[in-house]
Specification:
Largest sheet: 5 strands, mixed
Shape: extended
Number of strands: 7
Distance between the termini: 100 Å
Order of helices and strands: HHHEEHHHEEEHEEHHHHHHH
Strand order of the largest sheet: 5-4-3-6-7
Strand content: 5-15%
């Protein structure tokens, strides 16, 4: 019996066949079957524990992601969870420091004030004697107040007169008078309350009723929203037509919703204007639609594959920096070392670029200083490709194969090494999306992309967006062409 168990003990489960067990004595067969059942149960338990460990490791990787080492937005991180800065804490007190320039609201000329009240003391504050005369330079105190708001209501009485022939003719509204009950400024205000100030339709209606004394309902807000879309749509289409002619375009996208369907909000940021579009897909068909075959410029973008078919790309170094930080934060010693080695020249590159931006470094000098940095990073990426580490190979191989897309900003002057312009353009829409949970219809998506494009374009050009939208709505009501947003158009 001992010899039997010594023979069986050295075998694997696959080697212990039913035929081999059947050749053993009955007592040994029973014991072997019990032992095999126990071993199989242990194997199942070990497999389950391995799956739990793998899931825990995945959770640890997910929980270790921060805006500093991934594409997570900064708003996803709790303010108290942000890494502490190495900058020493200042010993100065909060607020204005001694000797700083005083900032105060300048007084208006007395002639521009709505009311001027002259106040003179009647008696001496010490002895009580009567005071007369006039102070040539009195102290001036001005109080600002919001006037009582009352809507301006214009009534148009359209007479219907009957001719001797029996026909009745009704007078027509003057040119520019809307057929609805809202004027251009009211339509523009409602649109901006939703698109710029991120208010819901219910909140907009509440504000109009309680603050502006303007009767309003949520349904009427939707109607005014549609009027604003119709007025601004020609301007939006004009901006879209100009996109393929731009020499450089930072592009980014963020998920949103249209009703229950997942959609994407795209941002195209040119030097003088921006175009935002809500589309049901993140595929390259959106780029083909808006850029067409006429586009020959440079696109600043992240490393998403739908951009790869474009002729000239500048991959975002801010994304790369976060990816290198993710290598540093990993538990893999080999990845950590490569992350540190890549982060050093990346910081030097950003330092030189900052000097070029502030004018302390010339374009030629920047290219000379970046040349050894480029060779070093290419060498480090090649080291990651042949490291034998699957994670490093998966990240470094496409970077090395498309390394030309990392250095376009050194070939074409005026190209940024990051995609920060597109990400800044999406900041306001992302906050809007989190508050509104997307749109509920295609008409709502058209309003969002149209108004947000006009708002961002006005911000780039330093224009008053309320005046622009009001003028566009007034032109729409008058049946005239919408004033262009592009300079020189």
């Amino acid at each position: 019996m001992d010899g039997v168990f010594r023979d069986i003990w050295g075998m694997s489960l696959e080697q212990i066949s039913e035929e081999r067990i059947a050749r053993q004595p009955p007592e040994a067969q029973a014991i072997i079957r019990v032992l095999l059942a126990h071993v199989a149960a242990q194997d199942r338990q070990i497999a389950a524990q391995d799956r739990q460990i793998a899931a825990l490791k995945a959770d640890m990787v997910r929980l270790s992601k921060t805006p500093q080492n991934s594409s997570l937005p900064p708003s996803s991180q709790h303010p108290h969870a942000k890494p502490t800065t190495k900058k020493p804490k200042s010993k100065k007190k909060r607020g204005g420091q001694p000797g700083h320039a005083k900032h105060e609201r300048p007084l208006l000329p007395s002639g521009e004030c709505d009311h001027v009240q002259i106040l003179k003391p009647s008696e001496c504050r010490r002895c009580g004697q009567t005071l007369t005369g006039r102070d040539p330079a009195p102290l001036r105190h001005q109080v600002w107040e919001v006037p009582k708001i009352k809507p301006l209501v214009s009534e148009y009485q359209l007479h219907r007169l009957t001719c001797r022939c029996g026909a009745t003719t009704c007078a027509a509204l003057p040119l520019g008078v809307p057929t609805g009950q809202a004027g251009p400024r009211l339509v523009a205000l409602v649109a901006l309350l939703m698109g710029t100030f991120r208010q819901s339709k219910g909140r907009v209606a509440l504000f109009l009723e309680h603050v502006l004394a303007q009767p309003c309902s949520k349904g009427w807000v939707v109607k005014l929203q549609q009027q604003a879309t119709a007025a601004l749509r020609p301007t939006y289409e004009e901006l879209c037509t100009q996109l393929p002619c731009e020499p450089t375009l930072p592009i980014d996208e963020t998920p949103t919703k249209e009703a229950s369907r997942r959609s994407w909000l795209w941002a195209f940021v040119a030097r003088r204007f921006s175009v935002l579009g809500v589309r049901p897909t993140r595929e390259a068909t959106v780029l083909e639609e808006l850029l067409s075959q006429r586009f020959t410029g440079v696109v600043n973008c992240d490393r998403a594959k739908m951009y790869w078919y474009l002729p000239r790309l500048q991959w975002c170094w801010a994304h790369l920096k976060r990816d290198f930080q993710a290598l540093i934060d990993t538990g893999d010693a080999q990845a950590k070392r490569l992350g540190h080695d890549l982060m050093r020249p990346t910081r030097a590159l950003f330092h030189h670029w900052a000097r070029y931006r502030d004018g302390t470094l010339t374009w030629a000098r920047l290219k000379r200083l970046a040349s050894p940095i480029r060779r070093e990073i290419d060498h480090l990426l090649l080291r990651g490709v042949f490291s034998g580490n699957r994670r490093l190979h998966g990240m470094c191989n496409p970077l090395y194969d498309h390394r030309g897309s990392l250095w376009t900003f050194l070939k074409v002057e005026g190209i940024e090494p990051t995609n920060n312009a597109a990400e800044r353009a999406l900041r306001h829409p992302v906050i809007w999306r989190k508050l509104s949970f997307g749109t509920q219809s295609a008409a709502g998506s058209r309003f969002v992309e149209t108004l947000l494009s006009v708002v961002e374009t006005c911000r780039q050009q330093g224009r008053n967006v309320f005046a622009v939208v009001t003028q566009a709505v007034a032109s729409h009501f008058a049946g005239q062409a919408t004033p262009p947003l592009l300079p020189g158009a």
